[in-house]
Amino acid sequence: MFTSPARPLALILCLSASLLTLSLQARAADGEAIIQKGGANPAAMPCMSCHGADGKGMAAGGFPRLAGLPEAYIAKQLADFKAGRRQNPLMQPISQALDDAEVAAVAKAYAALPRVQVKAGTLERPREGSGAWLALRGAWDRNIPECTLCHGPSGVGVGDAFPPLAGQSAEYIEAQLRAWRASPAGPAGRKGKALAAVPPTRRNDPNGLMQHIAADLSEAEIKAVSAYFAGLGETTEPFDASQHRLR
Question: Residue 7: its pLDDT value, please?
């Protein structure tokens, strides 16, 4: 029987393409590799560049802890960055460069890392108006509930919608509270021009709850409550080398 030489060539090309696709899918499904080396798209930089080799974040740069956060929460945040519901000049291009399989793999890999060790909270009555007071009692005269009502005792997190606050840096928590706020327009003064209104850069909270709370907090209160939760997370956790297989 006569066989066209084009047929074996087509078969070889088809097999090569299939192997390449499988190879890329295998890489995309490897969350640890993406964390350490980046995604298939060069624009998806290694996550560890900003979030640390152990996923515990870099407080000085305002980069949050991802280790031990709920898998569904991390995946949602990446999807929200992609869609613009959460805006950040670093995370938006990175999230847009990750495909769905890579997003799922990264979320799973970070969720598998050790959760923050939460310090036992004080039993003393907090000082009214302090960060501890806002966290534990709220400011109900302004319809601000206590933070622990949603984020759990000592800020350990509740489910997939309310992440842990304990262990995140004060810099990061402050930045997020400000991201939920909208800055109103300001009139021109003797020494300056009028200021245009600035919309919130984060709009992905359930029922707009955080936008309402952040809008009613003063700058001093934002700093106080952020420092309170940052102080609850144990920062002396040993690095667990078994969680990271450098390749």
Answer: 57
Q: How far apart are CA 69 and CA 157, in angstroms?
A: 9
Q: Identify the bridge partners of residue 233 per DSSP, sorted by sequence position.
A: 118
Q: Is 215 helix (H, G, I), strand (E, B) or coil?
A: helix
Number of C-beta neighbours around residue 179 at 10 A: 17
* Sequence letter at residue 44: A
Q: How many Cα neighbours within 13 Å face the side chain of 131?
A: 20
Which tokens go with 104?
A: 């799922």
Between 121 and 24, the higher pLDDT residue: 121
- Whether residue 102 has pLDDT greater than 90: yes
Q: Which amino acid is at 124?
A: E
pLDDT (average), residues 36-51:
96
Whether 31-111 shares its CATH topology with 131-185+199-230 is answered yes
CATH class of 131-185+199-230: mainly alpha
Look at the pTM and tell me if it is higher than 0.90.
no
Q: What tokens were used for 178?
A: 């400000």
- Asked whether the predicted pLDDT for residue 119 surpasses 90, the reply is no
Encoding tokens for residue 216? 């009613």
Alpha-carbon gap, residue 48 to 65, rounded angstroms: 11
Kindly list the domain boundaries of the chain, sorted by start residue: 31-111, 131-185+199-230
- CATH code of 31-111, in short, is 1.10.760.10
CB-count exposure of residue 37 (10 Å: 0-12, 13-18, 19+): middle
